[in-house]
Design a protein that fits this description.
By secondary structure, this protein is α/β, with parallel strands linked by helices. It contains 12 helices and 9 strands. Strands 1-2-3-5-4-6-7-8-9 form a 9-stranded mixed beta sheet, sandwiched between helices. The longest helix has 15 residues.
Length: 333
């Protein structure tokens, strides 16, 4: 599954059936799960078999705050297993928050988890080091290590290691996109964090309004109703890389998934709101066009949702969730 050097930087249906009442309960009641300090082997992590305890339905088991590396308390994930025989396809859920906030147990992450387990997918919701703790590439190295860890535990969690996907929004969309385009890129793998003998590849990515080209964001917002400020010294993007982004363009270029495209990349489902004032919609459009040119239009779905901003309920309708599930099923079945 390791990829060949081709990018700019080189690198070696189930019918949809949401349960509206369960989702409404989930949105009303879920809360952040605080990280626990665990200095014990993964096998000893407690397993909660109660769906009620997690506010999720159709859940066979969950493993909470599992450490996938030992450098930081942030390097933890939650695994949710659906009812059924398995081995299950897995979707790695990656939270957003400008690379400086967010949590694996956030409301949106729990909603996606409920959706996925109701359709027979296992889910791993991942935390990673934020920019106030470590600058890039720590974030993608953490997520890649989490994927390798999950492959190493495929038998234990009853996962199919050949059917891994990722789903992220905003900053999480960026990290999901990097997962889909940088498998085998040594400097982004974070092999020292562990499980280097396993692959970090994924077969399919759902990228909701992820940042792509940090260096172009202010220019792309010029002449629009949207404010810029991404080039500022104290912007979230500058904090991510540890310096004003225009001062370190080579470092920033390594955050751009377009710089790593090759013909064996994951399939991509990309959506972006046309009135997004946090991430220019043109970023997803250009990314989708580059993907189509590289991997073919049959592996890329792109949609600009008219009149919608940076996220919102329009992304979370039954109809739109059906589109996501259809795409995931197509490449993970």
């Amino acid at each position: 599954m390791k990829k060949e050097s081709r990018g700019l930087f080189g690198r070696p249906p189930k019918p949809f059936q949401l349960i509206p009442a369960a989702l409404m309960l989930l949105l009303a009641s879920c809360s952040m799960i605080p990280a626990l300090r665990v200095d014990i082997p993964t096998a000893a992590i407690s397993v909660d078999d109660s769906a009620a305890e997690s506010n999720l339905t159709g859940l066979a088991a969950r493993y909470v705050d599992v450490p996938y590396a030992t450098v930081s308390e942030a390097q933890r994930l939650d695994v949710y297993l659906p009812e059924g025989e398995g081995p299950f396809p897995l979707v790695v859920v990656i939270h957003g928050g400008g690379f400086e906030t967010g949590d694996k147990a956030g409301r949106n992450e729990k909603e996606r988890t409920q959706l996925l387990i109701s359709q027979g997918f296992a889910v791993a919701s991942v935390n990673y080091r934020l920019s106030n703790e470590a600058i890039y590439p720590a974030q993608i190295q953490d997520v890649k290590t989490a994927v390798r860890f999950l492959r190493s535990k495929a038998d234990e969690y009853n996962l199919d290691p050949e059917r891994f996907g990722a789903w992220g929004a905003s900053a999480g969309g960026t990290l999901a996109a990097l997962l889909g385009t940088t498998c085998g890129v040594e400097e982004l793998e974070g092999a020292r964090l562990g499980y280097a003998e396993y692959s970090s590849c994924v077969s399919v990515v759902v990228d909701w309004f992820g940042l792509v080209d940090l260096l172009a964001m202010d220019a792309q917002f010029e002449g629009t109703r949207c404010e810029g400020g991404h080039n500022d010294r104290d912007s979230a993007e500058s904090r991510l890389v540890g310096a004003p982004i225009q001062k370190v363009p080579k470092r920033v270029a390594k955050t751009n998934p377009m710089n790593y495209l090759s013909d064996d990349d994951a399939a991509f489902f990309i959506q972006h709101g046309s009135r997004d004032c946090r991430v220019p919609p043109i970023q997803s459009q250009l990314f989708a066009e580059a993907l189509i040119e590289t991997i073919g239009e049959e592996k890329v779905y792109y949609e600009e949702i008219e009149g919608v901003g940076h996220g919102g309920v329009e992304f979370r309708t039954d109809e739109n969730y059906q589109k996501v599930l259809d795409f995931l099923n197509r490449f993970l079945s």
